[in-house]
Amino acid sequence: MEPDCGDDAAPAKVNLYLDILARRADGYHEIETVFVPLPEPADRVRVSAADADGIHLTCSAPELPADRRNLAWRAAEVFAESAKRPPRWRIAIEKRIPVSAGLGGGSSDAAAVLRALNRLHGDPLDREALHAAARSLGADVPFFLDPRPSLAHGIGEILSPIACPVIPALVIVNPGFPLSTRWAYGHCRPGQAPGRLEALLAALAAADLDGLCANAWNGFEDVAFWKFPVLELVIEFLHVCGCRAAHLCGSGPTLYGVCVSKEQAEHAAREAVERFGPRFRAWACAQTGGWQG
Question: Domain with 121 in it: what CATH number?
Protein backbone atom coordinates (compact mmCIF):
# COMPACT_ATOMS: atom_id res chain seq x y z
CA MET A 1 0.00 0.00 0.00
CA GLU A 2 1.27 3.46 -0.93
CA PRO A 3 1.53 5.81 2.10
CA ASP A 4 -0.07 8.73 0.23
CA CYS A 5 -1.89 8.84 -3.09
CA GLY A 6 -1.83 12.62 -3.50
CA ASP A 7 -4.65 15.08 -4.03
CA ASP A 8 -7.77 14.23 -6.02
CA ALA A 9 -9.89 16.93 -7.62
CA ALA A 10 -13.56 16.59 -6.70
CA PRO A 11 -15.36 18.66 -9.36
CA ALA A 12 -18.82 20.14 -9.27
CA LYS A 13 -21.50 19.38 -11.86
CA VAL A 14 -24.32 21.14 -13.62
CA ASN A 15 -27.58 19.62 -14.86
CA LEU A 16 -28.35 21.02 -18.30
CA TYR A 17 -31.64 19.12 -18.23
CA LEU A 18 -33.46 17.75 -15.19
CA ASP A 19 -36.90 16.19 -15.32
CA ILE A 20 -38.51 14.67 -12.23
CA LEU A 21 -40.59 11.87 -13.73
CA ALA A 22 -42.41 10.29 -10.79
CA ARG A 23 -42.19 9.44 -7.10
CA ARG A 24 -41.39 5.78 -6.47
CA ALA A 25 -42.92 3.55 -3.81
CA ASP A 26 -39.63 3.62 -1.87
CA GLY A 27 -39.80 7.43 -1.61
CA TYR A 28 -37.11 8.15 -4.20
CA HIS A 29 -37.90 9.93 -7.47
CA GLU A 30 -37.29 8.69 -10.98
CA ILE A 31 -35.44 11.37 -12.95
CA GLU A 32 -34.00 12.03 -16.36
CA THR A 33 -31.05 14.39 -16.33
CA VAL A 34 -27.99 15.51 -18.28
CA PHE A 35 -24.87 15.82 -16.12
CA VAL A 36 -21.89 17.91 -17.19
CA PRO A 37 -18.79 18.23 -14.96
CA LEU A 38 -17.45 21.68 -14.13
CA PRO A 39 -13.79 22.66 -13.83
CA GLU A 40 -14.73 25.20 -11.14
CA PRO A 41 -15.53 25.13 -8.32
CA ALA A 42 -13.80 21.92 -7.23
CA ASP A 43 -12.90 20.46 -3.83
CA ARG A 44 -9.53 18.88 -3.12
CA VAL A 45 -9.43 15.49 -1.38
CA ARG A 46 -6.26 13.90 0.00
CA VAL A 47 -6.25 10.31 1.27
CA SER A 48 -3.25 8.76 3.02
CA ALA A 49 -2.37 5.92 5.35
CA ALA A 50 -2.87 6.81 9.03
CA ASP A 51 -0.72 5.94 12.02
CA ALA A 52 -3.70 4.62 13.99
CA ASP A 53 -6.65 2.37 13.17
CA GLY A 54 -9.87 3.96 11.99
CA ILE A 55 -10.97 6.79 9.72
CA HIS A 56 -9.56 10.21 10.52
CA LEU A 57 -11.39 12.94 8.59
CA THR A 58 -10.70 16.66 8.54
CA CYS A 59 -12.63 19.22 6.52
CA SER A 60 -12.03 22.91 5.92
CA ALA A 61 -15.78 23.68 6.13
CA PRO A 62 -16.65 24.02 9.84
CA GLU A 63 -20.36 23.49 9.18
CA LEU A 64 -19.73 19.94 7.94
CA PRO A 65 -19.36 17.02 10.36
CA ALA A 66 -16.07 15.13 10.50
CA ASP A 67 -17.64 11.78 11.37
CA ARG A 68 -19.85 9.19 9.68
CA ARG A 69 -22.51 11.82 9.02
CA ASN A 70 -20.13 13.00 6.29
CA LEU A 71 -20.60 11.10 3.02
CA ALA A 72 -16.83 10.97 2.49
CA TRP A 73 -16.49 9.09 5.79
CA ARG A 74 -19.20 6.64 4.74
CA ALA A 75 -17.40 6.16 1.42
CA ALA A 76 -14.33 5.01 3.36
CA GLU A 77 -16.51 2.59 5.37
CA VAL A 78 -18.05 1.18 2.20
CA PHE A 79 -14.63 0.74 0.64
CA ALA A 80 -13.34 -1.06 3.75
CA GLU A 81 -16.27 -3.49 3.60
CA SER A 82 -16.15 -3.99 -0.17
CA ALA A 83 -12.38 -4.41 -0.44
CA LYS A 84 -11.98 -6.28 2.86
CA ARG A 85 -9.42 -3.75 4.07
CA PRO A 86 -9.30 -2.61 7.72
CA PRO A 87 -9.72 1.18 7.84
CA ARG A 88 -6.53 2.99 8.72
CA TRP A 89 -6.79 6.19 6.72
CA ARG A 90 -6.47 9.92 6.95
CA ILE A 91 -8.85 11.94 4.74
CA ALA A 92 -8.45 15.70 4.33
CA ILE A 93 -11.06 17.69 2.37
CA GLU A 94 -10.53 21.25 1.25
CA LYS A 95 -14.01 22.54 0.48
CA ARG A 96 -14.45 24.97 -2.38
CA ILE A 97 -17.86 23.79 -3.56
CA PRO A 98 -20.63 25.40 -1.47
CA VAL A 99 -22.60 23.06 0.78
CA SER A 100 -26.19 22.07 -0.19
CA ALA A 101 -25.81 24.05 -3.39
CA GLY A 102 -27.09 21.69 -6.10
CA LEU A 103 -23.54 21.19 -7.39
CA GLY A 104 -22.96 17.68 -6.03
CA GLY A 105 -20.05 18.55 -3.74
CA GLY A 106 -20.68 15.87 -1.12
CA SER A 107 -21.15 13.17 -3.74
CA SER A 108 -18.01 14.29 -5.57
CA ASP A 109 -15.98 14.11 -2.34
CA ALA A 110 -17.28 10.60 -1.68
CA ALA A 111 -16.35 9.46 -5.19
CA ALA A 112 -12.86 10.97 -4.79
CA VAL A 113 -12.40 8.99 -1.57
CA LEU A 114 -13.41 5.75 -3.32
CA ARG A 115 -11.03 6.39 -6.21
CA ALA A 116 -8.16 7.35 -3.93
CA LEU A 117 -8.57 4.40 -1.56
CA ASN A 118 -8.77 1.98 -4.46
CA ARG A 119 -5.56 3.43 -5.89
CA LEU A 120 -3.90 3.45 -2.46
CA HIS A 121 -4.51 -0.31 -2.12
CA GLY A 122 -3.55 -1.33 -5.65
CA ASP A 123 -7.04 -1.35 -7.23
CA PRO A 124 -8.67 -4.27 -5.40
CA LEU A 125 -12.10 -3.19 -6.71
CA ASP A 126 -12.76 -3.47 -10.43
CA ARG A 127 -14.95 -0.94 -12.21
CA GLU A 128 -18.18 -2.84 -11.52
CA ALA A 129 -17.43 -3.23 -7.81
CA LEU A 130 -16.39 0.40 -7.50
CA HIS A 131 -19.63 1.54 -9.12
CA ALA A 132 -21.64 -0.75 -6.84
CA ALA A 133 -19.94 0.88 -3.85
CA ALA A 134 -20.73 4.32 -5.28
CA ARG A 135 -24.41 3.45 -5.88
CA SER A 136 -24.78 2.39 -2.25
CA LEU A 137 -23.76 5.89 -1.16
CA GLY A 138 -26.11 8.02 -3.24
CA ALA A 139 -27.56 8.72 -6.65
CA ASP A 140 -24.92 11.21 -7.85
CA VAL A 141 -21.83 9.37 -6.59
CA PRO A 142 -21.45 7.01 -9.60
CA PHE A 143 -21.30 9.98 -11.99
CA PHE A 144 -18.39 11.50 -10.08
CA LEU A 145 -16.29 8.31 -10.25
CA ASP A 146 -15.51 9.21 -13.86
CA PRO A 147 -17.15 12.59 -14.50
CA ARG A 148 -17.97 13.14 -18.14
CA PRO A 149 -21.09 14.44 -19.93
CA SER A 150 -23.76 11.81 -19.29
CA LEU A 151 -27.46 11.08 -19.49
CA ALA A 152 -28.75 9.69 -16.20
CA HIS A 153 -31.91 7.70 -15.47
CA GLY A 154 -33.33 5.91 -12.45
CA ILE A 155 -32.60 8.06 -9.41
CA GLY A 156 -29.55 9.37 -11.26
CA GLU A 157 -27.35 6.30 -10.92
CA ILE A 158 -27.96 4.72 -14.37
CA LEU A 159 -25.48 6.51 -16.62
CA SER A 160 -24.92 6.66 -20.37
CA PRO A 161 -22.13 8.82 -21.83
CA ILE A 162 -23.42 11.34 -24.36
CA ALA A 163 -21.88 13.03 -27.39
CA CYS A 164 -20.68 16.40 -26.13
CA PRO A 165 -17.34 17.19 -27.77
CA VAL A 166 -17.24 20.67 -26.25
CA ILE A 167 -18.82 22.40 -23.27
CA PRO A 168 -19.91 26.05 -23.51
CA ALA A 169 -18.59 28.84 -21.34
CA LEU A 170 -20.66 29.02 -18.16
CA VAL A 171 -21.02 31.37 -15.22
CA ILE A 172 -21.91 29.69 -11.92
CA VAL A 173 -23.56 31.84 -9.23
CA ASN A 174 -24.18 30.67 -5.66
CA PRO A 175 -26.34 32.91 -3.43
CA GLY A 176 -24.62 31.97 -0.18
CA PHE A 177 -27.47 30.00 1.40
CA PRO A 178 -28.34 26.29 1.18
CA LEU A 179 -31.40 24.56 -0.21
CA SER A 180 -32.16 21.06 1.03
CA THR A 181 -32.41 18.46 -1.71
CA ARG A 182 -34.88 16.53 0.46
CA TRP A 183 -37.08 19.62 0.73
CA ALA A 184 -36.90 20.25 -3.02
CA TYR A 185 -37.97 16.70 -3.87
CA GLY A 186 -40.71 16.88 -1.24
CA HIS A 187 -42.25 19.95 -2.87
CA CYS A 188 -41.63 19.39 -6.58
CA ARG A 189 -44.31 18.50 -9.12
CA PRO A 190 -43.23 15.50 -11.22
CA GLY A 191 -44.00 15.20 -14.90
CA GLN A 192 -43.78 18.87 -15.89
CA ALA A 193 -41.01 18.64 -18.49
CA PRO A 194 -41.73 20.08 -21.96
CA GLY A 195 -40.20 17.08 -23.74
CA ARG A 196 -37.05 18.74 -25.05
CA LEU A 197 -34.45 16.17 -24.02
CA GLU A 198 -33.78 14.74 -27.49
CA ALA A 199 -33.38 18.23 -28.92
CA LEU A 200 -30.96 19.13 -26.14
CA LEU A 201 -28.86 16.00 -26.74
CA ALA A 202 -28.73 16.79 -30.46
CA ALA A 203 -27.62 20.35 -29.68
CA LEU A 204 -24.84 19.13 -27.39
CA ALA A 205 -23.63 16.67 -30.02
CA ALA A 206 -23.56 19.41 -32.67
CA ALA A 207 -22.10 22.12 -30.38
CA ASP A 208 -25.21 24.16 -31.21
CA LEU A 209 -25.43 26.97 -28.65
CA ASP A 210 -28.86 28.15 -29.80
CA GLY A 211 -30.21 24.61 -29.50
CA LEU A 212 -28.71 24.18 -26.03
CA CYS A 213 -30.19 27.45 -24.79
CA ALA A 214 -33.62 26.71 -26.26
CA ASN A 215 -33.87 23.25 -24.71
CA ALA A 216 -32.12 23.39 -21.32
CA TRP A 217 -34.64 22.83 -18.53
CA ASN A 218 -34.88 22.17 -14.78
CA GLY A 219 -37.99 20.83 -13.05
CA PHE A 220 -37.01 22.21 -9.64
CA GLU A 221 -37.16 25.85 -10.66
CA ASP A 222 -40.78 26.51 -9.69
CA VAL A 223 -40.35 25.37 -6.10
CA ALA A 224 -36.87 26.88 -5.70
CA PHE A 225 -38.03 30.27 -6.99
CA TRP A 226 -41.12 30.10 -4.77
CA LYS A 227 -38.99 29.47 -1.68
CA PHE A 228 -36.28 32.00 -2.62
CA PRO A 229 -37.65 34.70 -4.97
CA VAL A 230 -34.19 36.30 -5.19
CA LEU A 231 -33.13 33.40 -7.44
CA GLU A 232 -35.50 34.60 -10.15
CA LEU A 233 -33.95 38.06 -9.87
CA VAL A 234 -30.51 36.52 -10.38
CA ILE A 235 -31.77 34.70 -13.48
CA GLU A 236 -33.03 37.99 -14.89
CA PHE A 237 -29.74 39.69 -14.02
CA LEU A 238 -27.73 37.00 -15.82
CA HIS A 239 -29.76 37.66 -18.95
CA VAL A 240 -29.02 41.38 -18.58
CA CYS A 241 -25.32 40.44 -18.40
CA GLY A 242 -25.63 38.78 -21.78
CA CYS A 243 -26.17 35.11 -20.84
CA ARG A 244 -28.02 33.28 -23.59
CA ALA A 245 -29.85 31.11 -21.05
CA ALA A 246 -29.88 30.76 -17.26
CA HIS A 247 -31.22 27.97 -15.06
CA LEU A 248 -31.01 26.28 -11.69
CA CYS A 249 -28.17 23.84 -10.97
CA GLY A 250 -29.58 20.54 -9.69
CA SER A 251 -32.07 21.16 -6.89
CA GLY A 252 -30.52 24.59 -6.28
CA PRO A 253 -30.00 27.18 -5.09
CA THR A 254 -26.94 27.68 -7.35
CA LEU A 255 -27.65 29.03 -10.83
CA TYR A 256 -25.77 28.86 -14.11
CA GLY A 257 -25.74 31.08 -17.17
CA VAL A 258 -24.70 30.02 -20.67
CA CYS A 259 -22.21 32.47 -22.20
CA VAL A 260 -20.62 32.92 -25.60
CA SER A 261 -17.09 33.25 -24.19
CA LYS A 262 -15.06 32.95 -21.00
CA GLU A 263 -14.67 36.74 -21.03
CA GLN A 264 -18.45 37.15 -20.92
CA ALA A 265 -18.67 34.56 -18.14
CA GLU A 266 -16.00 36.39 -16.13
CA HIS A 267 -17.86 39.68 -16.63
CA ALA A 268 -21.15 38.13 -15.47
CA ALA A 269 -19.45 36.58 -12.42
CA ARG A 270 -17.98 39.95 -11.36
CA GLU A 271 -21.23 41.80 -11.98
CA ALA A 272 -23.32 39.28 -10.02
CA VAL A 273 -21.15 39.57 -6.90
CA GLU A 274 -21.11 43.36 -7.19
CA ARG A 275 -24.89 43.54 -7.67
CA PHE A 276 -25.98 41.05 -5.00
CA GLY A 277 -23.21 41.43 -2.42
CA PRO A 278 -20.21 39.54 -1.02
CA ARG A 279 -22.38 36.69 0.29
CA PHE A 280 -22.73 35.62 -3.33
CA ARG A 281 -19.94 33.61 -4.96
CA ALA A 282 -19.42 33.21 -8.68
CA TRP A 283 -17.12 31.29 -11.02
CA ALA A 284 -16.43 31.55 -14.73
CA CYS A 285 -15.90 28.26 -16.56
CA ALA A 286 -14.15 28.44 -19.92
CA GLN A 287 -15.60 26.65 -22.92
CA THR A 288 -13.68 23.58 -24.00
CA GLY A 289 -14.05 24.23 -27.72
CA GLY A 290 -15.88 26.26 -30.33
CA TRP A 291 -19.68 26.52 -30.25
CA GLN A 292 -21.91 27.45 -33.17
CA GLY A 293 -24.62 30.01 -32.53
Answer: 3.30.230.10
